[in-house]
């Protein structure tokens, strides 16, 4: 075979190879040692709107200023110097190139999620003079995973939350109490447990019906949420009974909080279908002490204070004291 024929075949093979690279369903970018763009395939052109001749021999970071130079160069230098591949996933960094997402199925994503592989391109001398960036569009996978994660998070929240009040349900709140009891015992912190109950709640149900009772229960829960701190943990303990863990709060400070809550509820008027409902609450407080051997004993002490408040006239606060 003549040299001319061999050269013709090699040119044809090279042309076919370049055509394959251009039409891959992944992005392909080749950079030289100065991070200038040497190759820009059809995928990159289609999603960026930039033609290959516009970017050839231009610096990557000048064309795409949003790329974090320090982060990318740290990745790329390992490829140049060690002659090994580097990877990054959409979970580590959502994208390298900020391309708009135009897929109708994953329309909830504003930008294309990308997995990136950086590969060394050897020269004849064995020194890596160029690197290739392969860009995979993984928007479908990312969106599905994010949606599943959001659904699971919502299910988890629902499993912990009382549907009517939005407070923690008794089961999850009690788990929090156990955790706080152990923490306080370990760190010798001082926290207080508050139990409160709506006074004469049965009268509300009997006079105005259970829907009105639900409105009342929700109102008190909202009042608790509005008045407590972010660090405090509130739950619906029973029908019209609530429990609040006041983190790192001694009884005298807890008393200030619950008196404010009691006065707020006493001064409020709940309107339901043309009727006005007035409420009061009774409250028991128990400060965690070294003598308490279990979280259940802590609950019992707070509950004891609550019933003391109810038996001695209601609409009041009682701090637990041994011997009462």
UniProtKB/TrEMBL annotation:
EC number(s) given by UniProt: 2.7.7.65
Alphabetized UniProt keyword annotations: Nucleotidyltransferase, Transferase
Superkingdom of the organism of origin: Bacteria
Domain GGDEF: 189-322
Catalytic activity: 2 GTP = 3',3'-c-di-GMP + 2 diphosphate
Native source organism of the sequence: Catenovulum adriaticum
Pfam family, one: PAS
GO molecular function: diguanylate cyclase activity
Protein name per Swiss-Prot or TrEMBL: diguanylate cyclase
SUPFAM superfamilies per UniProt: Nucleotide cyclase, PYP-like sensor domain (PAS domain)
Record CDD domains: GGDEF
Class in the EC hierarchy, top level: transferase
């Amino acid at each position: 075979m003549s040299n001319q024929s061999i050269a013709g075949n090699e040119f044809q093979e090279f042309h076919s190879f370049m055509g394959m690279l251009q039409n891959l369903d992944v992005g392909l970018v080749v950079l030289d040692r100065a991070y200038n763009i040497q190759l820009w395939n059809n995928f990159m052109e289609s999603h960026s709107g930039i033609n290959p001749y516009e970017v050839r021999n231009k610096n990557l970071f000048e064309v795409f200023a949003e790329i974090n130079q320090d982060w990318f160069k740290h990745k790329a230098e390992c490829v140049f110097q060690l002659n090994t591949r580097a990877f990054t996933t959409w979970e580590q960094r959502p994208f390298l190139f900020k391309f708009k997402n135009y897929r109708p199925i994953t329309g909830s994503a504003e930008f294309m999620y990308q997995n990136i592989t950086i590969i060394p391109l050897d020269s004849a001398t064995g020194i890596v003079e160029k690197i290739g960036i392969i860009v995979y569009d993984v928007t479908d996978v990312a969106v599905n995973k994010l949606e599943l994660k959001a659904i699971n998070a919502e299910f988890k929240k629902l499993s912990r939350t009382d549907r009517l009040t939005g407070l923690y349900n008794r089961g999850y709140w009690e788990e929090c109490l156990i955790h706080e009891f152990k923490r306080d015992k370990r760190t010798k912190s001082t926290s207080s447990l508050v139990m409160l109950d709506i006074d004469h709640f049965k009268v509300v149900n009997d006079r105005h019906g259970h829907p009105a009772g639900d409105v009342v229960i929700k109102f008190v829960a909202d009042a608790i949420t509005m008045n407590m701190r972010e660090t405090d943990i509130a739950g619906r303990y029973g029908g019209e009974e609530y429990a609040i863990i006041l983190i790192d709060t001694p009884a005298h400070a807890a008393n200030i909080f619950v008196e404010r809550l009691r006065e707020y509820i006493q001064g409020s008027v709940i309107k339901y279908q043309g009727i006005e409902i007035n409420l009061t609450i009774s409250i028991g407080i128990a400060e965690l002490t070294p003598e308490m051997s279990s979280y259940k004993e802590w609950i019992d002490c707070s509950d004891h204070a609550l019933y003391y408040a109810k038996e001695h006239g209601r609409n009041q606060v009682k701090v637990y004291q041994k011997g009462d």
